Amino acid sequence: MLIGGNKEQVVANMRSATERGDLNCKVEVDDPTLSKEEQEAITQHFLDNYKTFGYRFCNVCARALTDTTTKYLKRSTKIEGLEHLAGVHGGVIVTSNHFSPLDNTAVRQTMNKAGYKRLYMVSQESNLAMKGWIGFLMNHEDIIPLASGTTYLRKHFGPMLHERLEQGHAVLIYPEQEMWFHYRKPRPPKRGAYYYAAVNHVPVVSCFVEIRDLPGQENEQFHKTRYVMHVLPPIFPDPSKSDRVNSEEMMAQDYRQKVAAYEQAYGKKLTYDFDVSDIAGWIPPEPERESP
Questions:
Q1: Where are the alpha helices (DSSP H) in the chain?
Q2: Which of these, 277, 259, 278, lies nearest to 269 by C-alpha position?
Q3: In the chain, at which end, N or C, are there fewer CB atoms within 10 A of the end residue's CB?
Q4: Residue 164's Cα: distance from chain center in Å?
């Protein structure tokens, strides 16, 4: 199941970004662009709304829709390494590579099997402006909006995240920040996910999703694919170290684990030299297919 229209420009943006070494930049072309005032307004609307009865009702509907999608997709999703979570209990921060609006279903399925009934997701505030059923999910699913500004982070984001972790939930944070559609490779993470794991004294559940091509086409630009979720060893903060040192060391370890998982899954060393095979299932235009 693919979401989105023509991806030729998105692939071109990924190629350009890898060539200049900008591996965390935005490459999608249809994402909402908000002014600072719009960002503040849409975030405040969420804060005003998420404790109301209307939000709770829509949240139940959104979770039911997500659960249905997860059940549909899990027919072809394989999970490896679940035994790594046998001793993990209570609140956790989950990190995974981000390549699709639906890749969270693989994480959700994994954490459900590990005993977690709900998966909260940290999402950029611009996603609250999306339209259609994706916009409905972004506004009413188990979302923790991430907005810029130290005041919001201190007064709202940090407490919301802490509350979910204290309740024993799993919280998914994409450390690569931006989604790169069907990009197979793990990208260098940013420190935020690991900082909040250190501050809240919770482990990081390290995941890497492999994307395998299948026979048959999903549409004119992509073959069908399936996910293989690789659950890697969890990463725990060291109570004898500062939050900053913990976050830096946890981030480095998580990246090493994801790189190793990539290299084992695809049988080759990780480089960021661009190749069309980096985009899972991609059927490039004829001239590119014919190039050496």
A1: 8-19, 36-49, 53-73, 104-113, 132-140, 150-152, 158-166, 192-199, 243-266, 286-290
A2: 259
A3: C
A4: 18
Rounded Cα–Cα distance for residues 162 and 137 (Å): 22
Nearest to 276 by CA among 255, 259, 292: 292
Q: Is the pLDDT of residue 25 over 90?
A: yes
* Nearest Cα residue to 111 out of 206, 192, 225: 206
As a whole number, mean pLDDT of residues 150-163 equals 92
Question: Rounded to whole angstroms, how far apart are CA atoms 172 and 107?
Answer: 8
Buried b (16+ CB within 10 A) or exposed e, 2-23: beeeebeebbebbeebbeeeeb
Distance, CA of 248 to CA of 282 (rounded, Å):
35
3 state DSSP class of 1: coil
How many CB atoms lie under 10 A from the CB of residue 139?
A: 23
77: three-class secondary structure by DSSP: coil
Q: Which of 64-68, 169-173, 233-237, 284-288 has the lowest mean pLDDT?
A: 284-288
Read off the tokens for 150. 């130290």
Q: What is the mean pLDDT of the chain?
A: 90
Provide the 10 A C-beta neighbour count for residue 238: 11
Distance CA 112, CA 119 (A): 8
Pairing outcome for strands 170-172 and 119-124: parallel
Task: Yes or no: say if 89 and 236 are a contact pair by the CB < 8 Å rule.
Answer: no
pTM, 2 dp: 0.90
- What would the two tokens of residue 7 be? 């991806």
The 10 Å CB-count burial string (b at 16+, else e) for 86-121 is eebeebbbbbbbbbbbbbbbbbbbbbbebebeebbb
Rounded average pLDDT over 161-187: 97
Average pLDDT of 253-278?
A: 97
